[in-house]
Design goal:
Elements lengths: L11 H10 L15 H16 L3 H11 L9 H16 L3 E10 L2 E11 L3 E2 L23 E2 L4 E9 L5 H10 L7 E5 L7 H8 L4 E5 L2 H4 L21 E2 L37 E4 L1 H9 L21 E14 L2 E11 L4 E11 L7 H23 L6 E8 L2 H4 L1 H9 L1 H7 E6 L6 E7 L4 H9 L10 H14 L5 H12 L14 H7 L4 E8 L14 H7 L5 H19 L8 H23 L4 H14 L20 H26 L6 H9 L22 E3 L7 E3 L1 H8 L3 H30 L1
Parallel strand pairs: 4-8, 5-6, 6-7, 7-9, 12-13, 12-14, 14-16
Antiparallel strand pairs: 1-11, 2-3, 2-10, 5-10, 11-13, 15-16, 17-18
Bound molecules: zinc ion.
Length: 761
Amino acid sequence: MRQVLWTVGAGVLGVAAAVSAAASGDAPSPPMLGFSAAAAQRQALLEQRFDAQLSPADLRAWLRRMSSAPNQVGSKHDQVNAEWMLSQFKSWGWDAHLETFYVLYPTPKSETLEMVAPTAFKAALREPPVPGDRTSTAAGALPPYNVYGGDGDVTGELVYVNYGMPDDYKMLARLGVSVKGRIAVARYGGGWRGLKPELAQQHGAIGCIIYSDPKDDGYWRGDAYPKGGWRPAAGVQRGSVEKMEVYPGDPLTPGIGATKDAKRLPLNEVKNILKIPVLPISAADARPLLAALGGPVAPEGWRGALPITYHVGAGPARVHLAVASDWSRKPIYDVIARIEGGTYPDQWVIRGNHHDGWTFGAWDPLAGNIALLAEAKAIGGLLKTGWRPKRTLIYASWDAEEPGLIGSTEWTEEHAAELKKHAVLYVNSDTNARGFLDAGGSHALQALVNQVAAGITDPEMGVSVRRRLRARLEVNGFEKGAKDEAKRLAKIAATGGDLPLAALGSGSDYSSFLQHLGITTLSLEYGGEDDDAGIYHSRYDSFDHYLRFGDPDFAYGVTLAKTAGHTMLRVADADVLPLRFAAVAEAIGRYVKELHQLADRERGRSQTLETLLDADAFRLATDPTRPVGPPARESAVPYLNLSPLDNALVRLKRSAAAYDRAYDEAATAGLDVPKARLDDLLRGMEQTLLDAGGLPGRPWFEHLIYAPGRYTGYGVKTLPAVRETIEQRLWSQADRYSTVTAEAIDRYSDRLDQAARLLRR
Ligand SMILES: [Zn+2]
């Protein structure tokens, strides 16, 4: 899985023109953050020696090997890959082991989808071989399915629900069509996959089908595979429908590691899996079903690119949907490799990428995983020359990310206490391909990421990856119809200042590090010039597809290895942890402003039936034990006080500026500061933003600044406890969480003030 962070849309030519025509260059890099002048010179040389060991031929060979057979959780090749990586890490000088967990991972025993009226049609539910794609004939892949859908055998009328998101149900209500007692068919896109069956279930549907419409990732977008990279008519997107926005990881062991003897929930008490059966299907299988629908013609925005008139239903198409799974537990294999730090062994700098795919996984996740391996090999090479990192390096290749971020979540839950004490950074990647740097994470890392990106040359353009991204952001912002966010980014890019990090929602292995444990986190990938949307989570996510449409010469694999590797080495070797805080205050300031706007808007909305239904749906979702009934009324002119947040923000801005200034002065004077004590303050910093009680209705998510949205899935909600309670018009809760969040921001400012005092001493 993964999530696109910096949304980029301009064509390559436009960017090339912007790069060559740009009058102003990238701003010159300030002194290397966290290092004295002498140490910075040594570090730059170390990075050159690191880079010299990165080999595109290695990356190609590793991708070929690891994607040569299906490697989903529980498959032979997934285990073989883990054992092979273990031997590689060891041969490169790392202290490595496999860490095994035992997790609930249902696999399909039987799947049926057929139309029983008005005509008969049996869905193929399989992806045929494609000429020129060598692995597409290989055996051993699971049939397409949505893991953690329920078992069931249902027959009912079909209703087309567009993307199956909350707004789509409002439109259905306006059209007078209900999914109650019926089977919903939704298309992929428009929001996280797992919300589609969850919302269908909440609205009373007895089953859910999700299909890939060619308008979203098939021939409408470009030539279909194998002619081009887009989804062929028979291609299916697999994927998890675990309610990861409630908690990710093994459904049976929320909050603890799924070790052999862990105490497990009985299946009927699990809160993050669905009851109704769900099945993903291809456009080819969906077409006859959709063509047989009657009822109102679908609204214009609902129509895809199949050659039919889209109707909503319900019926007359009736379908029979049956799914039965093997609900046994399966072992998963995390590969954990470590190099003990020479100066601060108790400070851990952690890097991860997953290794399980849905089928062959060449794009997702192995394109990112081979960059991680290249870094580990190069670091091993540095070790052999007598170098040793100051801080401990931990490299991890996670298993079972695809079903629900399981390998990383179980590992962080099992080691939560140590990680909270020792971890200073987690750097994640997932997929990778040609294009632009895409970076998101804790804003205290924004300055560091900009420095690192300014020092890495883009293999196609010959300018720094930061310069190239800056040009792209400028182009995007000036395009006709550019969104406000694109305009904001373009304005920042044009000033020559630091490019902002995106805030992280979910969809990859960073979630537990950031949102459960409060560890400073970064997510990196390259992309935007590739055609991969069409093979995402299908049988055609293969080595042959990646060679043609991903990163043919592995130049961007090497570039990701440099970007992540330099970041890891800088944090591992810095005199003082390379964090900077003005960007934190700026980002939180922007989020608080958005909350004011949101609150004004919501206060202005009249108490229509619609808003009451929204609030009720939220309460149901966050408190499943609450009986269904008429929505509770709230006062018409609600009371909400955001001034605790305003006050906390004023203080944060002052404290952040004071720390950054004190750091600059100390750096100019040679960084002669109490380094170990300063590190102790800085490394727990992000944890001050947690609340042990968690977010409303989902206690696993403790971070009060960043979370995946309750109703957006992967998409981020910043200041989530306040934002979502305002969105749901739960005014007294919003008021309470405004205070709770403000207190967390104050704790952060307290730490900053203590750290600044140490620097000035
Ligand atoms: Zn992935």
